[in-house]
Amino acid sequence: MQQQRWSALAPLTGVAFVILVVLAFAVGGSTPDINDSPEKILRYYNNHDSKQMFSAFLLALGVIFLFFYLGVLRAVLRAGESGPARLSAVAFAGGIVLGVGMLSFAGFTFALADAADHLTPQGAQALNTLNSDFFFPLAAGLSTLLIATAISSLGSRVLPAWAGWTALVLGIAAITPLGFFAFLLFGLWTLAVSFVLWRGASAATPPIAAPPPA
Question: Is the pTM of this model over 0.85?
Answer without folding.
Answer: yes
